[in-house]
Design goal:
283 residues, alpha/beta, Rossmann fold, Pantoate--beta-alanine Ligase, Chain: A,domain 2, six-stranded parallel β-sheet, 9 strands, 39% helix, globular, binds adenosine monophosphate
């Protein structure tokens, strides 16, 4: 496995054999089974697999969140080696944002809601770094998790708008046996908080239950989730949403599909989760 620091090193490895197709899995490290599932997906569909590990400072809107973000590079590299990854990019901040950096990519409308509204500047940071990753690796396919549903929508929009020559592939959310969505931030939870964090999945599945019993009213779905989060003393709701999966606008009328999503502080740790329901949904 080739571990590269500089863009020049990535390009040299990437173009060693120009006829090979590359799959790219962008990550911020502290890898878990959710990341590794994306790596396996990429492994199955491409001749070569690249992974980036970069805790992207410009997508963090809270300094404390950036400082607390788990980092464990040696362990990550061992996990990726075992998955047969060909190339890992672990750039320093200066390599991604050289001195004098002043070029950003911003998707406008669908970043105004949900995570974008709660975390000003977050998606501008995401699309800027993802655009750079796409330019550096030039992959045929890039792999993202449904866990970050709005990120998928925003990256797809960017690819469409700017004509990036690649396919976006989305992997399902990987969960603990009790339903908690895997997240690098889970390891920041204390034991009581880890238990309380289940409330996100409980809220989503309660809303899923009433959807399956025929309730199509967005406000009833949101209210169901809000009530369950409100009953957990260690949890503080940031937002709940029952939105159109494409436009991400809140549903007020009946719909065939809905993206349920929520963000909740458990102690000091902010967690997100979502479920896609209705026609063509895979959960
Ligand atoms: P991150 O390291 O948090 O930036 O995540 C890197 C990629 O892994 C993103 O595309 C995430 O959506 C994806 N990912 C994170 N957690 C999960 C999960 N539990 N299931 C599936 N994909 C995930």
């Amino acid at each position: 496995m080739n571990v590269a620091k500089t863009i020049a090193e990535v390009r040299a490895a990437r173009w060693q054999d120009p006829l090979r197709t590359w799959g790219l899995v962008p990550t911020m490290g502290a890898l878990h089974e959710g990341h590794l599932a994306l790596v396996r997906h990429a492994r199955a569909e491409n001749d070569r697999v690249g992974v980036s590990i970069f805790v992207n400072p410009i997508q963090f809107n809270r300094r404390g969140d950036l400082d607390a973000y788990p980092r464990q590079l040696e362990r990550d590299l061992a996990l990726l080696e075992a998955e047969g990854v060909d190339l890992v990019w672990t750039p320093d901040e200066d390599e991604v944002y050289p001195p004098g950096f002043q070029t950003y990519v911003a998707v406008e409308t669908i970043t105004q809601v949900l995570e974008g509204a709660a975390r000003p500047g977050h998606f501008r940071g995401v699309t800027t770094v993802v655009a750079k990753l796409f330019n550096v690796f030039e992959p045929a396919r890039a792999y993202f998790g449904q866990k970050d549903a709005q990120q998928v929508a925003v990256v797809r929009q960017m690819v469409r708008d700017l004509g990036f020559n690649l396919e976006i592939v989305v992997g399902p959310t990987v969960r603990e046996p009790d339903g908690l969505a895997l997240s690098s931030r889970n390891r920041l939870l204390g034991p009581d908080e880890r238990q309380a964090a289940l409330v996100l999945y409980h809220a989503l599945t309660a809303a899923q239950d009433i959807w399956q019993r025929g309730v199509r009213d967005g406000s009833a779905l949101r209210e169901t989730m809000r009530a369950i989060i409100g009953a957990e003393p260690l949890a503080r709701l940031d937002y709940v949403s029952a939105a159109d999966p494409i436009t991400l606008q809140e549903l007020h009328n009946e719909a065939d599909r809905v993206l349920l999503s929520l963000a909740v502080f458990v102690g000091r740790v902010r967690l997100i989760d979502n479920l896609l329901l209705g026609d063509g949904a895979n959960e």
